[in-house]
Amino acid sequence: MGCIDPKHGVILDELFYQYHAYCAPFDGQDQATQRLRPIIQHKEKAMSKERKQSLSAVTLAAIGVVYGDIGTSPLYTLRECLAGHYGFGIAPASVFGFLSLIFWLLILIVSLKYLSFVMRADNAGEGGILTLMSLAGRNTSARATSVLVILGLIGGSFFYGEVVITPAISVMSAMEGLKIAAPSLDRYIVPLSIVVLTLLFVIQKKGTGSVGKLFAPVMLLWFLSLAVLGIRGIMQNPEVLQALNPKWAIAFFAEYKTVSFFALGAVVLSITGVEALYADMGHFGKLPIRIAWFSAVLPSLVLNYFGQGALLLKDPAAIKNPFFLLAPDWALIPLLILATLATVIASQAVISGVFSLTRQAVRLGYLPPMRIIHTSEMESGQIYIPFINWLLFIAVVLVIVSFEHSSNLAAAYGIAVTGTMVLTTVLSCTVALKNWHWNRFLVPVLLLFLLCLDIPMFAANAMKIWSGGWLPLLLGFVMFIVMTTWKSERFRLLRRIHEHGNSLEAMIASLEKSPPVRVTGTAVFMSRAMNIIPFALLHNLKHNKVLHERVVLLTLRTEDAPFVHNVRRVTMEQLSPTFWRVVASYGYKETPDMEEIFHRCGLEGLSCRMMETSFFMSHESLILGKRPWYLLVRGKLFIALSRNALRAPDQFLIPPNRVIELGTQVEI
């Protein structure tokens, strides 16, 4: 019975559950088994086919999706390190120093910290900063949990700030190759970048399934090209390989002292996108992501960076764009096209990431409900959120028009990335101490070591705040305010709604003993808490003075897990002859479906038909009470969010003609 794939809903346990609930009561066990056998065989074949999917295919897919952002960093990283903003010349000491720093950051941050340590922290196979936040808060005190939640929300907010810059800097860096092919085309770089990104955002509503099939081959070709170009450069100047020795990184700090600290703000560009390794873990698994890194991505990146370094040692004038100048003249146009495709894929990866993060935040109660469209019948992770898509598009276009050049954007890039890295270190070490029960002396040492890597990079990027670093911080701050406002004000609202203090059990007993006028059919009252009288039920009795012959109190609960097994989806309890309590549980990566809930209620003996059921919901008109000015602003923001939030019938796929909304005014 252990064959479970909760992500796709393929659970053998459920089949036997349905057998006992549906087939067994009929013609005996043999006939029931005959009815069930074709279903089991079909499910087993589907699961067997999925298990037989080769590791190489999944690894190839991981190359296409996970490493898009970090894989396009060679377009601009070394140029920004040595372009003159920090006063470094194209001397062997500076070139070797930067190459050594880049190499050891890839080893220490990506290979050791994320692939070896952070990816151990998974929630049913899923990763990401909000997942880490949930894991870290499981075995801590209430006060510590509150602090960890704030840290997790700050990390999620940083991601929103980062995702605006990633598409802009990636696509613009690729388009700037036009200046090498034809300098007169320089003025078209910004318009062409906007055109490419416009097409990318337009096709989001079609889903990434069909486009995604091209991701892996294109990115594999991209990494092969990086490796080939790097080898070509290294062969012309093999002594550049000396930079593999960490003594060059140490000598770099010893020679340049204070300036070398500020230069970390450029070096960190080589590891932007590292959070995708953890966030996309649920799509591909740990092993394929690790294999892809060590077998293809890491060697290609190192070869290309060192190839660019070899070119600069030979020709310092190549600093204007060492990546494209590394290629022979005949390959410039094909490389430009390939780079554009690679940056589009990198942009797609972060856009999909912000969709996933938004859905998690909505389901966990940190953002208001909004329209989420599933673009694939097979993969639950392929979603499209129109509001977020076009809001992000507007922000990206404004960034491109305002900054005009990828070098200007590089000054804004990094602060959100390194801030998230610091928070990831704190949360993951908390998980190691509280959840994995690692040695309490070892964990502080590990925490100190990782913070010694993360904090200097964050501090160096913080120095760029006035040259563009304010942008991701501002965007992150806005998202943090929105998420904390929605969570806290929603809690305040629910407390006001349920402050009447009436007992649910006493009310049901009273209604059964002295019932009002009963009408035929089923009434479903949406209840936010299990033991609280639904507001809509009180108002229905008060104003309509009738009650249906069968009443269902339905609570939808989001669990601290990405997916919930179907056999645990619905629990049902009969509270009285005419009252039932139904609790439907969903993971934070799932979308509730009322038809599915009714189907599972039927398996338990409570048969409900959608067209014979009335759904009663409360609609609150919010009024602000007396507050301090800062709470007044937060209250007005909450009211604005509530007015634009997705209505409950649309959230749960309920036909509009089956919904009755009872309104009331609530002072918050």
Automatic annotation (TrEMBL):
It holds the Pfam family K_trans. It is a multi-pass membrane protein. It is found in: Cell membrane; Membrane. One of its GO terms (cellular component) is plasma membrane. Keywords: Cell membrane, Ion transport, Membrane, Potassium, Potassium transport, Symport, Transmembrane, Transmembrane helix, Transport. Responsible for the low-affinity transport of potassium into the cell. Likely operates as a K(+):H(+) symporter. One of its GO terms (molecular function) is symporter activity. Its main location: membrane. Residues 521-668 form the K+ potassium transporter C-terminal domain. The chain crosses the membrane at residues 55-76, 88-110, 147-165, 185-203, 215-235, 259-279, 291-313, 333-362, 383-403, 409-429, 441-459, 465-486. InterPro entries: K+_transporter, K_trans_C, K_trans_N, Kup. It catalyses: K(+)(in) + H(+)(in) = K(+)(out) + H(+)(out). Residues 59-508 form the K+ potassium transporter integral membrane domain. The keyword ATP-binding does not apply. Belongs to the HAK/KUP transporter (TC 2.A.72) family. NCBIfam families: kup (TIGR00794), PRK10745.1 (NF008015). This is Low affinity potassium transport system protein Kup. Signal peptide: none annotated.
